């Protein structure tokens, strides 16, 4: 019995040694061999895996009927001979009969049906100064459009058509947009017809681009070209994410940097235009300027947030409240003021007539000033 036990122990020891050598030198020999899937209806279901999206057809089909092509026309005077450089001489020449001829200029863009009673959201620059506006739907119908109102400072406009059975796009009210989300741009680039391109959300909150006065763009690499302006930027469920507005390009074509106005902001502006014919924003009557490191050093500031008042409009709300050039505004109603762009966006939603409290620094001392907000004058784009 003892000899059998010793033989068993030696055998186990040798087997373990062989296993150790194989595991060290040829671990692939011990890898699990691939299993051959069972054939026939009784085959076992494969293990769950991450679903792969192969098509966005459903999202595009859901939103396409809500995106329209917009065609505008306007008459311009084209000089028959080169106009003189002097403005006064040019004005005199224009009064001469036959100096110029009237020519029709056409433009194209896109829009989105947002209400079943015929309201369409688009860009202001698509319909600016147009004498006539026509809208073509994806089902082949066409209609004359009326300009309800516009907001040049955000580059949005609202049109209205009189057609039945309109397909209204869904807004993504309860679904916040994140960087990296897949988005689809639908529009009429270069007038070739309705086109869909795909990309992702590249960035959020883009501003200081010099496109509009109020900027808070979604940046995307979905191809956006001339003619896409006013079209829809949608998510993979077909909900409206933004209104395609501009591209960054030196050639006029898409370079993978496009900008869209967020749908929530566009909806707020649209509602004001439909109800009041225009957008009302709060206004202080000051020219804010960012605090640079040099300015912070000159004013002996320990902080670089806040804005310095570079100008005060005479008889404006700020002037009447006693705000002076050189004051540094650091808070508005206990909310920190970070820079001039953010400060304008803080003031804009405040209803005219309401009072706010500004915390500012003057002569090294902090003080609170109460200001009654005024109505921002409507500024036409040049």
TrEMBL record:
GO molecular function: serine-type endopeptidase activity
GO terms under biological process: proteolysis
Keyword Hydrolase: yes
Keyword Protease: yes
InterPro entries with a match to the protein in the record: Chloro_Bact_Ser_Proteases (IPR051201), PDZ (IPR001478), PDZ_sf (IPR036034), Peptidase_S1_PA (IPR009003), Peptidase_S1C (IPR001940)
SMART domains named among the record's database cross-references: PDZ
PANTHER family: PEPTIDASE S12, PROTEASE DO-LIKE 8, CHLOROPLASTIC
Name the UniProt record assigns to this protein: Trypsin-like peptidase domain-containing protein
Organism lineage string: Bacteria, Pseudomonadati, Pseudomonadota, Betaproteobacteria, Burkholderiales
């Amino acid at each position: 019995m003892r000899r059998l036990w010793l033989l068993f122990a030696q055998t186990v020891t040798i087997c373990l040694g062989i296993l150790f050598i194989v595991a060290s030198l040829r671990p692939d020999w011990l890898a699990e061999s691939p299993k051959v899937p069972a054939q026939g209806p009784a085959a076992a279901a494969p293990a769950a895996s991450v679903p792969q999206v192969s098509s966005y057809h459903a999202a595009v089909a859901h939103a396409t009927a809500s995106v329209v092509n917009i065609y505008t026309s306007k008459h311009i005077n084209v000089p028959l001979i080169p106009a003189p450089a002097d403005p006064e001489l040019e004005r005199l020449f224009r009064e001469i009969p036959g100096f110029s001829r009237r020519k029709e200029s056409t433009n194209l863009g896109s829009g989105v049906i947002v209400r079943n009673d015929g309201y369409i959201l688009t860009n202001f620059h698509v319909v600016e100064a147009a004498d006539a506006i026509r809208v073509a739907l994806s089902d082949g119908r066409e209609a004359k459009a009326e300009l309800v109102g516009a907001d040049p400072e955000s580059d949005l406009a609202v049109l209205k058509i009189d057609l039945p059975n309109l397909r209204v796009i869904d807004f993504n009210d309860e679904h916040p947009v994140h960087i990296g989300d897949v988005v689809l741009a639908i529009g009429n680039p270069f007038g070739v017809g309705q086109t869909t391109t795909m990309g992702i959300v590249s960035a959020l909150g883009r501003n200081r681009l010099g496109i509009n006065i109020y900027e808070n763009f979604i940046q995307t690499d979905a191809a956006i070209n001339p003619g896409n302006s006013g079209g829809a930027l949608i998510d993979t469920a077909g909900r409206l994410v933004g209104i395609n507005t501009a591209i960054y390009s030196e050639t006029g074509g898409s370079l993978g940097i496009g900008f869209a106005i967020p749908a929530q902001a566009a909806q707020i502006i649209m509602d004001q235009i439909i109800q009041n014919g225009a957008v009302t924003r709060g206004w202080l009557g000051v020219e804010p300027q960012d605090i640079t490191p040099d300015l912070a050093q000159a004013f002996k500031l320990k902080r670089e947030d806040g804005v310095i008042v570079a100008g005060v409009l005479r008889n404006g709300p700020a002037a009447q409240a006693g705000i002076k050039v050189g004051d540094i505004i650091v808070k508005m109603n206990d909310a920190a003021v970070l820079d001039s762009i953010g400060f304008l966006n803080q003031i804009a939603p405040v209803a005219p007539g309401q009072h706010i409290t500004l915390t500012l620094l003057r002569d090294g001392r902090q003080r609170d000033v109460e200001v009654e907000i005024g109505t921002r004058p409507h500024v036409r784009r040049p």
